[in-house]
């Protein structure tokens, strides 16, 4: 069995649950090892959390550019880990990366660096006759195909698509069954590649405070607004409803293009793929490119004034009506129910 490298996703010192999902997938495919990219000195604490998840082998790269929007440090770290493992005589058969916007870019760049095969947006992966076979939805999820790569497979995995069975809980405690990270293997990364050729962060604009809303791909409830919400103010309805459930706000591309919200909220083929327990679509027609990013949700509720809107084809519950009439009533009903 070859070695499977997993790129850990973490945020402000805590590992994201998608990392646990990637580990679950990796454990089916070979010998999992984690590549951890952190800022100076931040690595050992995260390695401790990984121990709680049963990980023993960690490749640690510290970079001054970790945590910036540059994806090149992660590419450099993964490339260094693959080369180091190979130099030590190990076969590396797969690299698993979260199918986030940044993850997709890292994967594509890594494939160029290593002349590897890229499989994007997998929802499952297993070994068949020693070869990694990934399941990938195509044509907006209407079909799935099985994909294999020639040689090293770099696979981006859709968040929430893999059940993290068998991976210990997320308690960052070294005593949790699963072991201890043997001393992390420190990676030297190519300074030029790390910084990125020709790319530089010139300013960082923090997202306007959205209270305690969770991230779009992590949230168990997502309320998305479309062009039907009409204005910034109308778009606020999606936020009001999301906040009732402790959920995240998403958007269609038309809503983003109309300037109703920031681009980072876009759900769909060219935005985020979300698989929450509950997805509520407000004033969204349900174009195939939007559905590609949300039809894996557990339960889908749609509100649209057009009874023929395609979103109703994938909705479990549909309300034909004006969002400005229906949503305030819905909010009132939820509040009354909880009182
Ligand atoms: P519309 O299609 O204009 O629909 C608005 C809906 O709101 C209508 O159904 C209308 O009946 C309803 N409505 C209007 N007023 C009200 C009201 N008061 N109450 C209730 N309902 C109301 N789109 C994405 O979302 N994500 C993507 O990632 C994406 N990627 C794309 C990639 C490519 C290559 C291309 C070509 C397109 C992509 N699109 C994507 C765009 C996609 O095709 C649609 O144009 C877009 O999803 C439409 O957004 P919408 O549903 O908000 O707008």
UniProtKB/TrEMBL annotation:
Every Electron transfer flavoprotein alpha/beta-subunit N-terminal domain range: 4-191
An annotated Gene Ontology molecular function: electron transfer activity
Record's cofactor remark: Binds 1 FAD per dimer.
UniProt cofactor(s): FAD
UniProtKB keywords: Electron transport, FAD, Flavoprotein, Transport
UniProt GO BP: fatty acid beta-oxidation using acyl-CoA dehydrogenase
UniProt keyword Transport present: yes
Binding of FAD, residues: 227, 252-253, 266-270, 283-290, 304
Keyword hit for Transport: yes
Family that this chain belongs to: Belongs to the ETF alpha-subunit/FixB family.
Described purpose of this protein according to its UniProt entry: The electron transfer flavoprotein serves as a specific electron acceptor for other dehydrogenases. It transfers the electrons to the main respiratory chain via ETF-ubiquinone oxidoreductase (ETF dehydrogenase).
PANTHER family tied to this protein: ELECTRON TRANSFER FLAVOPROTEIN ALPHA, ELECTRON TRANSFER FLAVOPROTEIN SUBUNIT ALPHA, MITOCHONDRIAL
Subunit and partners: Heterodimer of an alpha and a beta subunit.
Protein name: Electron transfer flavoprotein subunit alpha/FixB family protein
Source organism of the structure: Cryobacterium shii
């Amino acid at each position: 069995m070859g070695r499977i490298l997993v790129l850990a996703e973490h945020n402000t010192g805590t590992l994201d649950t998608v990392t646990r999902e990637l580990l679950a997938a990796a454990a089916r495919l070979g010998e999992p090892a984690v590549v951890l990219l952190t800022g100076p000195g931040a690595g050992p604490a995260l390695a401790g959390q990984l121990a709680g998840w049963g990980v023993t082998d960690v490749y640690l790269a510290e970079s001054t550019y970790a945590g910036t929007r540059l994806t090149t440090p992660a590419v450099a770290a993964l490339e260094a880990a693959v080369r180091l493992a190979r130099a030590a005589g190990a076969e590396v058969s797969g690299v698993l990366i979260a199918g986030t916007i940044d993850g997709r870019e890292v994967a594509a760049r890594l494939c160029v660096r290593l002349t590897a095969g890229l499989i994007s947006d997998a929802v499952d992966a297993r070994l068949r006759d020693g070869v990694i076979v990934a399941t990938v939805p195509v044509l907006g999820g209407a079909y799935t195909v099985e994909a294999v790569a020639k040689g090293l497979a770099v696979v981006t995995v859709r968040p929430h698509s893999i059940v993290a069975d068998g991976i210990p809980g997320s308690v960052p405690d070294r005593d949790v069954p699963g072991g201890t990270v043997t001393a992390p293997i420190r990676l030297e990364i190519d300074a030029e590649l790390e910084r990125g050729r020709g790319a530089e962060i010139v300013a960082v604009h923090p997202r306007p405070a959205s209270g305690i809303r969770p991230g779009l791909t992590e949230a168990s409830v997502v309320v998305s607004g479309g062009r039907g919400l009409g204005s910034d103010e109308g778009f606020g309805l999606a936020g009001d409803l999301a906040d009732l459930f402790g959920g995240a706000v998403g958007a269609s591309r038309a809503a983003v293009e109309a300037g109703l919200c920031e681009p980072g909220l876009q759900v769909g083929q060219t935005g985020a793929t979300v698989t929450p327990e509950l997805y509520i679509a407000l004033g969204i027609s349900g174009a195939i490119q939007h559905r590609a990013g949300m039809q894996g949700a557990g339960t889908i509720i749609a509100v649209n004034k057009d009874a023929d809107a395609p979103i109703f084809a994938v909705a479990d519950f549909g309300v034909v009506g004006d969002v400005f009439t229906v949503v305030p009533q819905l909010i009132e009903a939820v509040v009354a129910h909880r009182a």
